[in-house]
Amino acid sequence: MPRQKFAIADLTCPVLRKLLRDRELRSAGRKPDLVKRLIDSEGSDEIELSDNEIEDNDDDLRQMVSALVENVASIMAAIKNGQVGVPPVPPVPPVPSAVLPQDDDAIAEAHHQRTLFNITAPTHSTAFGDIEPTLRRRNETMTSTRQPTAEYVFQPRDVIGILPTFDPLDDVSPSAEQFIDRIEKLAQVYHWEEYLVLFAAQAKLKGPAKRWIDGLQTTFETWEEFSKAQIANFPSRFTTEDMRQRLDSSRRAHNQTTEEYFFRVCAMGRRAKLDDETIVYYIRRGLCMKPLQTAIATMHFNTPSEMLVAIRRTIRERTIVPIAFGVNERIYSDRRRC
Length: 338
What we know:
Elements: E1 3-7, H1 13-22, H2 31-42, E2 46-50, H3 51-80, H4 104-116, H5 133-145, H6 156-162, H7 176-190, H8 194-203, H9 208-215, H10 223-233, H11 240-248, H12 258-271, H13 276-285, H14 290-295, H15 304-318, H16 320-324, H17 329-334
Antiparallel strand pairs: 1-2
Pfam families: Retrotrans_gag (PF03732), SAP (PF02037)
Domain SAP: 8-42
Protein name: SAP domain-containing protein
């Protein structure tokens, strides 16, 4: 086959990349980078090529486009004939490697989706299977009824952002058991890979827990190893009775708003595994805001959320006059402390 000279700058990106790969050179990047790389390799701005080397890629592209055109034509014919179902799509010839996206960002994204987060079903260790039956049934119902959609590719920052924080010295932080249980349920719902959960969970350790994980001489390879070690090293500091005693003495601090106090007591109650009625009792008891306590004294709340709605409404109605005089809720309420 006769060969002829071509200006390297006139070659297409697929041809440039193929030539660079044949020479075992890096083929990623934009066209100016590819041109410069090939010129440096050849020592000239021209290169001798046969017609086949130029046309092979074009033939592959033509085959792919032709197959796509046939697919569209068959679908349009089915719609025109009033057919309900969509005709089967014939296989499309694979895209030649020379015309695949080869810039750094495209390669990284394709590899990321193809390997790290290619999740189609739960593939966690046995530690993830121990969930409540109701959660399992709900998950089966959801997966059996929803329509297939493009899967979301979870990034590590996504998982870190949704996980709770574990600090063994913080009263409102979940216990080690609650921390592990919450993460396992989230992993089951969102079909996270085990290694991703293991990475994100360690990023959510604070205080002594962070110093513990940093000081280890070994690395956890499975979620089961990590969860067992964390529970063993951080047993709950407070029993349910201890938490009740702390809630008994809990009062809204001088520099705390009503909502800050509300959510703190809720968190402490959840950690102690108290029911909603008991949590409502402790919130009501420690508000230290006489007008508010009087206003909601006769109200019954089934959940803390119902109580929060009533608190917000009462504060809004009772602070209309003080706000008009430039007094905010915190100052106004502190005058009437219990």
